[in-house]
């Protein structure tokens, strides 16, 4: 089973690497990083480089797509290569999924038209403008349409575990969770917009604006 994770300049590292760490532990799954061209792609702050194994035209029948997000998605909303690739591969995927603002690219390709979906809270309005209906959930599933979207960054790990359950079985998902020792016990309870106070939201916005 092939899982394709697209990479692009200024993607968010954990959006891609979180699901990778989960999915690559299943013996029957082969993860391929795909992009406009082979070679290194740098994350949104430029500090980390990840290698694309293949170009989009070399990966024509992935079983699963996991599209990560990041600041770079904003300039890719109108990218014809990505739009056409998603439209070509989606009819044959088992699941087409996104993490964070990767949902914007699924929406731009018309895959989320009229569907509820989630993304990073800062991109909710843009997601709606692209034809989806944003809901503030960690994971949103439309199994009949073979679409799953995950909210910001860390939620990609949760979604990947759910994918393992759907693709293999529940025990495989639980075993994978054990292998990565994914047992969240955060020191703060501000990981969702509804839980954060005004000062936390202001500081988060300040950090986001400094990265533009």
From TrEMBL:
Signal peptide: none
A Pfam family this chain is assigned to: DJ-1_PfpI
Alphabetized InterPro entries for the sequence: Class_I_gatase-like, DJ-1/PfpI, INH-QAR
Protein known as: Thiamine biosynthesis protein ThiJ
Domain DJ-1/PfpI: residue ranges: 2-165
Gene Ontology BP annotations: regulation of DNA-templated transcription
């Amino acid at each position: 089973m092939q899982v394709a994770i697209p990479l692009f300049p200024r993607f968010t590292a954990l959006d891609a690497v979180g699901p990778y760490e989960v999915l690559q532990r299943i013996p029957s799954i082969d993860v391929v990083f795909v992009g406009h061209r082979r070679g290194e792609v740098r994350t949104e702050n430029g500090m980390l480089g990840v290698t694309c194994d293949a170009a989009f035209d070399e990966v024509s029948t992935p079983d699963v797509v996991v599209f990560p997000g990041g600041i770079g998605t904003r300039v890719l909303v109108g990218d014809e290569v990505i739009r056409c690739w998603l439209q070509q591969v989606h009819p044959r995927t088992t699941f087409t999924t996104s993490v964070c603002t990767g949902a914007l690219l699924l929406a731009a390709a018309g895959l989320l038209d009229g569907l509820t979906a989630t993304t990073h809270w800062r991109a909710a309005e843009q997601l709606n403008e692209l034809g989806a209906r944003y809901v503030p959930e960690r994971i949103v599933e439309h199994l009949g349409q073979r679409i799953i979207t995950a909210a910001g960054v860390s939620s990609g790990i949760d979604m990947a575990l759910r994918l393992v359950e759907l693709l293999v079985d529940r025990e495989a998902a639980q075993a994978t969770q054990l292998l990565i020792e994914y047992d969240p016990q955060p020191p703060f309870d501000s990981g969702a917009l509804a839980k954060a106070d005004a000062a936390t939201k202001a500081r988060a916005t300040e950090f986001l604006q400094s990265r533009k």
